[in-house]
Specification:
The protein has 296 residues and is an alpha+beta fold. It is built from nine helices and ten strands. Bound molecules: (3R)-3-hydroxy-3-methyl-5-(phosphonooxy)pentanoic acid. The site of (3R)-3-hydroxy-3-methyl-5-(phosphonooxy)pentanoic acid (PMV) has 16 residues, from α4 and α5.
Length: 296
């Protein structure tokens, strides 16, 4: 029997970094997906994953799943991706979730969404050592989610017509080293960082309301504020700042980096009649536009 499953990638809308320290964030899914195919074999575990050099997430998922459900790992697992792992859309979390879903179908185990999340989050922590789990939650639950560290709260938000432009800065960022670097800096001035995280937490609470109301003006202003606080945390780059300014200058409601920073993507919120202008401005600032649908 051959089982096929898939899970979507994600984009952080609000609250990155603060969410690692117990604050909430808002994350949305993107249209590109990771696909996993699994079948039982007589041989040893084989992972055929030509698009990813790093198969640790699949390996760790198989290990934890087989231990938990007491099944053997004589498996052939093939993965395939709609998107390049360089964009920071969460290919590791999506492949983790898709693998859990595939294994639970193959072995006919009853597993709730929360259990898929808990197992997937364990995989992330075992492989990466750090992370809030927001990307696992997005891959499991889909749509737009209000999320608190470690899955303490996972709440779907009913957001309609989220009109985002996504710009890639051309630099691949390494999330875990950026998170670890910030952790190191926090040690030296905890109270200063705590103040920034509290402000970010407040922005997330306000954005939770403005997004559901389709209040794009307020949402855009909150994105700008969140970006400024990420600059204060020292995780933005000149290129990301330039791309955000360019988008705002031609009429975007707001813009911010999305994810750990240090490169990867920025997002701009714009009304449909401004999208083309915003895209061109981001390209002029040196960015690459990534065409994906959000909130799916
Ligand atoms: O770089 P990304 O898109 O994987 O986002 C990282 C977000 C952080 O808050 C910095 C880390 C986390 O696990 O929440």
């Amino acid at each position: 029997m051959n089982i096929k499953t898939s899970a979507p990638g994600k984009l952080m809308l609000f609250g990155e970094h603060a969410v690692v320290y117990g604050y909430p964030c808002i994350v949305t899914t993107v249209s590109p997906r990771i696909y996993v195919e699994v079948e039982k074999t007589s041989g040893l575990l084989k992972i055929d994953s030509p698009q990813f050099k790093d198969t640790r997430f699949v390996q760790e998922t198989v290990k934890l799943f087989c231990e938990k459900y007491n099944v053997n790992n004589n498996l052939l697992i093939k993965t395939h991706s709609d998107f390049s792992s360089q964009y920071g859309f969460g290919s590791s979390s999506a492949v983790t979730v898709a693998t859990i879903l595939a294994l639970s179908k193959l072995f006919q185990t009853e597993i709730s969404k929360k259990e898929v999340f808990d197992l997937g989050y364990k995989v992330v922590i075992n492989v990466q050592g750090v992370g809030s789990g927001f990307d696992i939650a997005a891959a499991v639950f889909g749509g737009t989610i209000y999320f608190v560290t470690g899955g303490k709260v996972i709440e779907p938000l009913f957001v309609k017509n989220l009109s985002l432009v996504i710009g890639y800065s051309g630099v691949k960022a390494d999330t875990s080293s950026i998170v670890k670097n910030l952790e190191f800096r926090i040690h030296n001035s905890e109270s200063e960082y705590k103040k920034i995280f509290e402000k970010i937490g407040k922005i997330v609470e306000e954005a939770k309301i403005s997004l559901v109301k389709n209040d794009w003006k307020t949402t855009g202003e909150l994105m700008n504020k969140n970006h400024r606080l990420l600059q204060e945390l020292g995780v933005s780059t000149e290129k990301l700042d330039k791309m955000c300014h360019a988008a705002i200058n031609v009429g975007a409601f707001g813009a911010k980096l999305s994810g750990a920073g240090g490169g990867d993507c920025m997002i701009a919120l714009a009304s449909s009649n401004k999208i083309k202008k915003v895209e061109l401005a981001i390209i002029k600032a040196g960015g690459e536009i990534i065409n994906v649908k959000c909130n799916i």
